Amino acid sequence: MNNFIYYNPTRIIFGEGTIAKLGDYIPPNATILMCYGGGSIKRNGVYDQVMEALSANEVHEFGGIEPNPDVDTLTKAIEMGREKKVDFLLAVGGGSVIDGVKLISAGIPYLEGEAWDIVTNKIQPEKAIPFGTVLTLPATGSEMNSGSVISRRATQEKLAWGSELTRAVFSILDPTTTYSLPLKQVRNGIVDAYVHVMEQYGTYPVNAAMQDRQAEAVLLSLQEIALKALEIPPDYDARANLMWTATNALNNLINRGVPEDWATHMIGHELTAFYALAHAETLAAVMPHLYRYMHQQKAEKIIQYGRRVWKLAGDDETIISSAIECMEGFFHSLAMPTTLTAHGIDPQEAAERVSARFTDRDVILGERHDITPVDVYEIVKMSK
Asked: Between 331 and which of 260, 286, 320, 336 could a Cys-Cys bridge form, CB atoms 3.0 to 4.6 Å apart?
């Protein structure tokens, strides 16, 4: 096991009715900028719950944060935050809103340049406005980690960044807020969480027994609850388990002391930037093919995954092939395509565009730093 430091200051307030407790965790005299997405929180009752809980505070609103939040939109929120002299932020929504609020948090006190500079130059801000979250879409784990992914549609870019200063002070997780979600978004959240685990688990062994078992527990939980979580009317226990499982898929616990990959995500970000696919759709269209292409380098962990998670038996090559097929089968059971062709995208064209971008940036991917732009080209081309 590799050396590591573990620190996670985010307080989780979990369960039905917990939005009413918002006022217990925000300074009483705070001036708040509440940020949200397209307005669904005003239709499903979450907005009213939040406003009632914050009735003693001065609250300003900023709506319209997009899926894959655009830096131009977030820059407007940063300007509003400065103008209103806010000293606390509240993200109400899914991972995109929370990711956006992380940049707003760092951007308000950052006066040396533009917010996009923080993202592109991986600037570690010296200050950040504290924030909390009310999660409405379980998927990204952003409610309990320090990472953020921001898009710039004007240049077709989507980049990851992060800072220890941009961790939520608290996150409220009420499973009933997911009841009004379109099932496609629930499905995407399940796939997103699953791939998050695989990016931290499907690398190479370093004798980290606890982390491996924790990762496998998250994978097995997602497999067990997935179909139930997609039922209508919603089942509280299934949605509750999904919400907490997705948080634990990427809250900096299962990745302590182990190598990580994230090549699927980096490729997926480019596919979203070029073709506007949902994040989870890109992940499902890349990961199985990346595992087939890199199966020799990942052999030990794929075999472990096959034996422990899917209870497979046989020779190594059979288990590797079957394990990847089981992963695809799980995605298919959720009506999630695993090829770019299924989304009407030419894999050859996509391979050329994505690999060219990594070539231009001189980027090498993978847990062993051995996935070159040429390899990216071959992997994306397989998604047909």
From this structure: 336
pLDDT digits (tens, 9 = 90+) for 14-46: 999 999 999 999 998 999 999 999 989 999 999
pLDDT the model gives residue 223 = 98
Q: Are strands 31-36 and 11-14 parallel, antiparallel or unpaired?
A: unpaired
Letter string b/e over residues 108-135, b meaning 16 or more CB atoms within 10 A of that residue's CB: bebeeeebbebbeeebebeebbbbbbbb
The contacts of residue 264 (CB under 8 Å, 6+ apart) are 195, 198, 199, 283, 286, 287, 290
**For the chain, percent of residues with pLDDT exceeding 90:** 99
CA distance 310 to 307: 6
Distance, CA of 106 to CA of 130 (rounded, Å): 9
Give the β-pairing of 58-62 and 31-36.
parallel
Predicted confidence at residue 143, as pLDDT, reads 98
The pTM for the full model equals 0.96
Can you give the residue ranges of every domain in the chain?
Answer: 11-177, 182-381
Indicate if the pLDDT at residue 155 is higher than 90: yes
Cis peptide before 233 (omega within 30 of 0): yes
What is residue 195's three-state secondary structure?
Answer: helix
Q: Count Cβ neighbours within 10 Å for each residue of 319-348 and write b for 16 or more, e otherwise.
A: bbbbbbbbbbebbeebebebbbeebebebe
Q: Which CATH fold would you assign to the domain 11-177? A: Rossmann fold (3.40.50)
Nearest to 131 by CA among 268, 36, 256: 36
Q: 338 with 191: CB under 8 angstroms?
A: no
Rounded to the nearest 5 percent, the helix, strand and coil shares of the chain are 50, 10, 35
**pLDDT tens profile 218-236:** 999 999 999 999 999 999 9
Do 11-177 and 182-381 show the same overall fold? no
Tokens of 276: 């506007």
Q: Where are the beta strands (DSSP E) in the chain?
A: 11-14, 31-36, 58-62, 88-93, 131-135, 147-152, 157-162, 170-173
Q: What is the CATH number of domain 182-381?
A: 1.20.1090.10
Return the CA Rg of the chain: 20
For the chain, the maximum distance between any two Cα atoms, rounded to a whole number of angstroms, is 65
Q: Across residues 240-265, what is the average pLDDT? A: 98
Q: β-pairing, 157-162 with 147-152?
A: antiparallel
Average pLDDT over residues 97-105: 98
pLDDT score recorded for residue 39? 85
